[in-house]
Amino acid sequence: MSLRSPLGRVLGQGAARGGVRHWWEQRLTSLALVPLTVWFVVSLLTLPSLGYATLSAWMSQSWTALLLILLVLVSAWHSQLGLRVVVEDYVHDAGARTLTLVLLGFLHVLVATAGVFAVLRVAFGTAA
Amino acid sequence: MAEFRLPANSRPVPGISHPAPPGAREVRTFRIYRFNPDSTENPRIDTFVLEVKATGPMVLDALIQIKSTLDSTLTFRRSCREGICGSCAMNVNGVNRLACTTSMQDLGAGIRIYPLPHMPVVKDLVPDLTNFYAQYAAVKPWLQSRTPPPPDRERLQSKEDQDKIDRPAACILCACCSTACPSYWWNSERFLGPAALLAAYRWIIDSRDEASGERLDELEDPFRLYRCHTIMNCTDVCPKDLNPARAIAEIKKMLLGRQE
């Protein structure tokens, strides 16, 4: 129990003076994902087959590799921003929240790096 | 974690059924949330049946009739009975509204009445709005100006500038919007909620106010402002047809605009 005043509780530790960047980046990444996703889906649907030979030939084109890397990076960034909000919304225990956010951050860096690495490997034809 | 279920001792159980008045023809059934803080029992849902012809047109008329004829312990807030005091906000058939301006004609023969969602209940339909009012106080809802007022008259404002605050200033603080917002349900300790943010906006855009910068500083926070995920239940339920969602969007635009 606490006898702190209701206003004192609401004012708490003050405003964090942040959140604008997060909010704006979420909008920018979702905007960028519209053309990237449309391009990706249309490309896959118009490929003659989804076999490894066709895909690696497609991915070894410079523009394809470049756009695929962008798609991976922007998706990972957007996903990190979005999942961060979900965790902040629902995980109220401070310790658990920080831990989840740190792990989530690491996971996104891992996924983004693995994605870029995979695209490069296929694009440069070094995959076995 | 956020609480998605009510605690075991807060889950409503079936309550007392009051039968239809003898000889009644067309009737309306009210299922009303009851909670008595003096008892250790769970809240219950009581059933009251009123004859349509013998009841006034609004939900508040029915509540007053139930209180004066069937159960005098039924507790609810009401005052002006014309949608200007904001006292009788409650959840009627799943939507937050003012009982006094909600016509029963549009609601059908079965009407469910609960207190505003996700708030501590004081008794029956009376929610504890302490935190809600503190959030309103936190945005300093008064004029802040360093320029002294003219000695011989009030501060002047152009008609266009008055038009900007005309609607936002019409908020009656009934709490329908904030308590309809899922973000407010999960984070009401840190998210200010649509009502307080609409009040903040009303002062930020007031041409006579000189504290817009400080006001924006105080809102620039991942929780105070940015817990709004544009769900827009607030605008949907506002009994005064105000647009808190738009006010919040404008605040976000202003915060971005002063950085770019």
Strand order of the largest sheet of chain B: 1-3-2-6-4-5
| Class based on secondary structure composition and strand pairing of chain B | alpha/beta
CA gyration radius of chain A, whole angstroms? 21 Å
- State the name of the first-level CATH class of chain A: Mainly Alpha
The CATH class of the largest domain in chain B is Mainly Alpha
Q: Averaged pLDDT of chain B, please? A: 96
If you had to describe this structure to a student in words, what would you say it looks like?
- The complex is a heterodimer of chains A (128) and B (260).
- Chain A is built from 5 helices and no strands.
- In chain A, helix 2 packs across helix 4 and helix 4 (62-90) runs antiparallel to helix 5 (94-123).
- With 128 residues, chain A is mainly α.
- Chain A is elongated and about 70 Å long.
- Chain B is α/β, with parallel strands linked by helices and 260 residues long.
- Helices cover 28% and strands 15% of the residues of chain B.
- Chain B contains 8 helices and 8 strands, in the order E-E-E-H-E-E-E-E-E-H-H-H-H-H-H-H.
- Chain B has helices spanning 59-69, 130-138, 159-166, 182-187, 193-204, 212-219, 233-237, 244-257; strands at 13-18, 27-34, 44-51, 89-92, 95-98, 110-114, 121-123, 126-127.
- A 6-stranded mixed β-sheet of chain B has the order 1-3-2-6-4-5, with helices on one face. Chain B has a two-stranded antiparallel ribbon with strand order 7-8.
- The mean pLDDT of chain B is 96.
- At the A-B interface, helix 1, helix 2 and helix 4 of A face helix 2, helix 4, helix 6 and helix 8 of B.
